Amino acid sequence: MSLLNHETNSLQKISPSYDPWDPIMSLRKYGQHKLTSVEMTVTHLCNMRCEHCAVGDMLVMKEAPALPVSEMIKALDQVEHLETISLTGGEPSFLEKTVDEMIVPLLKYARERGIRSQINSNLTLDLSRYEKMLPYLDVMHISFNYLSAKDLHEVGFTNSPRPVSYDIAARMYDKMMENSLKLSEQGMFISAESMINYRTHDKLAGIHRLIGQMGAKRHEVHPMYASNFAASLPVLSLDDMRASIHGLLDARDKDMWMLFGTLPFYACNGGEEDRKLITRLHKEPNVTVRNDPDGRNRVNVNMFTGNVYVTDFADIPAFGNIKNQKLDDIFEEWTTNHPLNQTVNCFCDAAQCCGPNLLVADMYYKDVDFKTRKAFSDIV
Ligand code: SF4
Fold first, then answer.
1. I need a surface site. Which of 20, 142, 175, 261 has the fewest CB within 10 A?
2. pLDDT at 313
3. By its UniProt entry, which NCBIfam families does this protein fall under (predicted)?
């Protein structure tokens, strides 16, 4: 099925009113969650070892061969309602071979089918690797949590097997900035994500300004997940997180799209402060709050084993494999029968909310049964 607009022969522009990664779109369209998005882990190699890395324990120094890309494309072809794909790592472009033999063919497939694509990258490698994606890629998603090269040096190599000098980190920082500007100038949609954590919560306004200067079209903000390397880092209080978001909303460039995701504030929370923040987020121009795709409309496929997960980073075991099952069947089994999905699979349409992310619920709402809650009517 093609999602191209045949009258103009063009794809609908990704914008605050059209975010095909948000599971609420397909939930409203089909009346139930459908698999519309597939994320693929294309490498476990990376040139960084960030202290907050959500997949840090899975990173390797040498990688086994991946499944043939044709096998992955065959699996994607069988997903009836597919609308988006995401490619993730590690640093997906770490090896040029992965760019040529896996990334570009998958992006081409997406473009030919009329579905949207995203890649997650640290953008610190040779510009030419990213330029190969330009003709086919919809969203270049980068992580940016720094005010200076010093911040990158402090955060980016904490778990590195060997010490990395400040000079190397500074060169990578400059490369990231330069790549982002050059790719933006060539028309790439750069979406820079910052996390809210104990290091960044009072620096976000400055980080936001730098992201604008890098030419990014969108600033994404998510809380840090307490997963893998990040599991041992201090957890920010909900009060500090709220204050940080208000501060960012006060300081932001109102012409830049801001996308908040996996926030731990829900329209069914009783607290006055949560309801004030949610109402503000809904009312601010050019601000969207994306529902979490993981396990709602998306699964993750490990391209080395074929295993299928709810997300690339949670410690939830695989629940299928593309070698012997269809992705739609694996997803159906997860949504209907998996006990974990049943704990957070709620939906309040008027509040534009389809429930919490599993890890965020575990971090902040242990023992809360969201299925028994409903959004308060004053914030819908
Ligand atoms: S969908 Fe779930 S988390 Fe969201 S407001 Fe309703 S009950 Fe709360």
1. 175
2. 67
3. rSAM_YfkAB
Look at residue 2 and tell me whether its pLDDT is greater than 50: no
What is the token pair recorded at 298? 């998306």
**What is the extent of the structural domain holding 138?**
23-379
Q: Sheet of 308-309: strands edge to edge? A: 287-290, 257-261, 218-223, 190-196, 139-143, 116-121, 84-88, 37-41, 298-302, 308-309
The region of weakest confidence among 129-138, 288-297, 339-348 is: 339-348
User: Which of 28, 263, 268, 360 is the best mutation target for the ligand 1 pocket, counting ligand atoms within 8 Å of the beta carbon and taking the most?
Assistant: 268
> For the chain, what is the mean pLDDT?
92
Query: Please, are residues 294 and 311 in contact by the beta-carbon 8 Å criterion?
Result: yes
Residue 11 belongs to a domain: no
Task: Kindly give the distance from the C-alpha atom of residue 250 to the centroid of ligand 1, in angstroms, as a whole number.
Answer: 26
CA distances from 183 to 138, 188, 190 (A): 12, 5, 8
> Are the beta carbons of 214 and 189 closer than 8 angstroms?
no
Q: What is the CATH number of the domain that holds 107?
A: 3.20.20.70
C-beta of 346 in contact with ligand 1 (< 6 A): yes
Ligand 1: centre distance to CA 86 (Å)? 26
- Flag whether 4 is in a domain: no
Residue 68 falls inside a structural domain: yes
Residue 55 lies in a domain: yes
Q: Quote the tokens at residue 99.
A: 């760019």
- pTM of full prediction above 0.90: yes
Residue 213, pLDDT score: 97
Ligand 1: distance of its center to the CA of 364 in Å?
A: 15
Half-sphere exposure of 61 (CA within 13 A, CB side): 4
**pLDDT tens digit sequence for 345-380:** 899 999 999 999 888 888 888 889 899 999 998 766
